[in-house]
Amino acid sequence: MHFAVESALSLFKTMAQQLNLPITDRSYLPFIYQLAPDNTGVITFFSGQLDNFIAQPTTDETASTVPLLGVQGGVGTEAGVDFIHNIISLYPQIAVQNQNNPNERPFNIALLSNSATPDRSTKIDHLYDDSVADPGKALFGGIKMLFALGAEISCVACNTAHYWLSEADVQKKLSADANKQMSIITALIEHLTSPAVPQLSTDTQGVIMLATRDTLQTGLYQRALRTQGIHVKDLSSTEVDIVHDAIYQDIKAGFPQRALAPLMTIAERYPQHILILCCTELGLVLNAENTPELFQSERLVDNNIISPTTLIRKLLAVQGQAVT
Fold first, then answer.
1. For residues 23 and 184, what is the distance between their CA atoms, to the nearest angstrom?
2. The overall pTM is greater than 0.85
3. Does the N-terminal or the C-terminal CB of the chain have fewer CB atoms within 10 Å?
4. Which residues have CB under 8 Å from 261's CB, separation 6+?
5. How far is Cα 54 from Cα 271, in angstroms, rounded to an integer?
6. What is the DSSP string of 83-118?
């Protein structure tokens, strides 16, 4: 159910106050409400109906009957946008007009690009230091905001963030909405253990996780994978540093192509292993365009592709539909 414009603006203001973001600019653009001109917080909506809704508010607006899918991104920002692009690529019906009914869409998408979320890796490195900002409040604030906007299912497009999104915390803090929040870790495990997935055959020696140092430190993926009987090959501390630096010093710094060579050294070192991208930003570098040989050999599993697929399936299942 979509809010009236006044209610939506009130919600934006509340969110901005919670995150200590100054609202210094209120510019109405198609799909975008910008909290601050320096992009410390940007809320982006991908929905033709919502675009019309914001641009042409009326006093007799009615709730949309089209289901709303929510994604919290901005952690980092490009990875969140890539997540949405993958949804549209995987399910083009969301973007391609139905010639018989141009206004028809299977679902709407709301992307909350919550780029002011405190850095997850920094907090994991300083868990007991109260002077280091905790991202948990911003993450759950964003989730609640998406549900308030009417999302029937949502997820956070960040692997490291799932340290704060344990099943117990989700149940406690979201209560009745807990079953609407999808874990991208669970989505990946379900994919890897599906009988339809041939990658983990006897020809491979298991999987290697490419992730931030802190995602590995939490053990979130390792425990889930090993519980399912999947062998995880641990990288050396030097190799972990190579991947972590590629993410932070290259991709997050705005130089994704610079990360390609060091990441490929890891991939080439373990030719018999499946490479799992457990950082949503790694797919900006290791993808079908840059590394076609990895994709063609099915050695690369990108959770920024797996999770959007699962999210769509879960949303359409709520509606009694199936992904075609």
1. 31
2. no
3. C
4. none
5. 51
6. HHHHHHHH-GGGTSPPSS-TT--S-EEEEEE-TTSP
